[in-house]
Amino acid sequence: MLKKHAQVFQTLLVISDVVVWVFAFALAHLVRFWSPGFIEFSSRPPRKDTILVLALAVGGFFLSYLLIGLYRSHRISGPASEVLELLKGAGLGLLILVGLGYFVLDVRYSRLTLVIFSAFVFMLNLVSRSTLRSILHLMRARGWNQRSVVVVGVGELAREIAEAIDRHPEFGLRLLGFVSTRPVRRGRFSGRPILGDAGSLARILEETQADQVLFALPNGEEHRLRELLDSMSGVVADVRMAPDLTRFMTLNSSVEELGDLPLINLQVSPMSGWNAVLKRGFDLVFGGLALLVASPVMAVCAVLVRMGGPGPIFYRQERVGLDGRPFQILKFRTMPVDAEANGPVFQSQGAANRATRTGAFMRKYSLDELPQLFNVLRGEMSLVGPRPERPVFIRQFQQRIPQYHLRHKVKAGITGWAQIHGWRGDTSIERRVECDLYYIENWSLGLDFRILARTIFGGFLSRNAY
Question: What is the pLDDT of residue 83?
Fold first, then answer.
């Protein structure tokens, strides 16, 4: 029955895709050859060529979607993965279409039409497939197209799996119960029955007719996996394993491939590839605008610092940024030149007493931070990120906080998630690090916009401004 359900859904998916492709092609043809924005009305292709290219488009995109895997079951995957697959499918489909049309059949059709068609395919398929999957999720949540699951293991990882299944009824998974890896009497675990122990795993699977077996072996028992798999000879259920890597995963954990070898990322920076390009573009655009707007204020601050006493206008200090690289941070000078004659003092301890009158005012409203816009434009800092610290204090913090070094997986920032929540100045370093790691783990341009907005509208004007 489950296979029939899957076949019905896949058939509906193929039908809806074909309808989308035909509609997208007709729309692209209208835009290219009938829109007032294009003047080459005399270049409309013969109807025969148009029908031939449409047939090639449907066949090419069907082949592309098959190769990408867009007709495989995506029961427990998120929408983001399908968006990426659709983008790949549209690109590969365009290449197949151009290759068949231009190099195999020698049909010289408008390339602009094909590009517009591919763009329409991506957008329309995104809508059609999201709609179909929403309907399917709703039906699964109401008990249709369910898959029964038996979890092998009764540890914390097994409990998390049970809770995840309960939280996501749209996945259509029905947890029958657990199998203990140790001899036990039947009982209950996480609200479900313990069906028996690993010695009777094959019998349990045969009796329950489970569709899936999910291994969630407790720490120290991973070596038993081969033995358990061997005991399941003749079992036709799907078998999956949830590795207990949570104690190792620290930052932006994910899975990727090295050729055919899967690699599990335990600790990686989110600022790589296109993310790094987007982040840098964000800093250049909004950093440049901020510098333009703040220039009059910075000019007034420079005059006030000069009038406030002897010494330079700007204060340079070594801080640590991305990948642990040092750089010279730039600030308006707010203290006398001999303020640290007896050695470095952490951040703002006693800053109210050490600051000049002008410096105290600038610190209160964070005006002394404005020159760091030059650090942003030079690429040493970002508008948003963890605040940079001095090397001498970083060594102390790393001894107290094991994950402190993870803050250096992204560029240091002028403002950050910790700062808009009041964790700056003489406040808990531990809480500040928690906020910084939350930001890195959940980074997006949208989050950067939120933090900048909160900063502009009062995030920095906290009682911990020193």
Answer: 80
* Residue 462: per-residue pLDDT: 47
DSSP 3-state of 262:
strand
The answer to whether residues 319 and 199 belong to one domain is no
Domain boundary among 110, 141, 172: 141
Answer positive or negative: Cα dihedral of 319, 320, 322, 325. positive
Q: What is the domain extent for residue 319?
A: 274-459
Domain count, the chain: 3
d(CA 249, CA 321): 23
d(CA 127, CA 121): 10
Two tokens, residue 429: 């370093």
β-pair partners for 173 = 147
Give DSSP secondary structure letters for 299-368: HHHHHHHHHTSSS-SEEEEEEE-GGG-EEEEEEE--S-TTTTTT----TTTTHHHHS-HHHHHHHHTTGG
Q: List phi, psi (to 5°) of 314.
A: -100, 150
How far is 342 from 339, CA to CA, in rounded Å? 8
Q: Is residue 262 part of a domain?
A: no
pLDDT score of 164 = 84
Spatial contact of 370 and 332, defined as CB atoms under 8 Å apart: yes
Q: Tell me the C-alpha distance between 202 and 209, whole Å.
A: 10
pLDDT at position 143: 63
Q: Looking at the structure, do residues 302 and 424 belong to the same domain, yes or no? A: yes
Asked whether residue 106 is domain-assigned, the answer is yes
> DSSP characters for 107-133?
----HHHHHHHHHHHHHHHHHHHHHHH
Contacts of 131 (CB under 8 A, 6+ apart): none
DSSP per-residue codes, 142-186: TTSS-EEEEEE--SHHHHHHHHHHHH-GGG-EEEEEEEESS---S
Structure tokens at 86: 């659709």
Average pLDDT per consecutive 10 residues, the chain (466 residues; last block may be shorter): 55 88 91 67 73 90 86 61 83 87 73 88 90 75 75 87 82 86 81 87 86 82 80 76 67 60 65 80 93 94 87 90 91 79 54 72 87 95 93 85 84 91 78 89 88 76 45
Which of 141, 160, 194 is the C-terminal boundary of a domain?
141
SS3 (DSSP) at 8: helix
Contact predicate 313/333, CB 8 Å: yes
Q: Do 327 and 429 sit in the same domain of this protein?
A: yes
- At residue 388, the pLDDT reads 92
Q: How far is CA 118 from CA 20, 49, 129, 293, in A?
A: 11, 18, 16, 42
| Same-domain status, 65 and 30 | yes
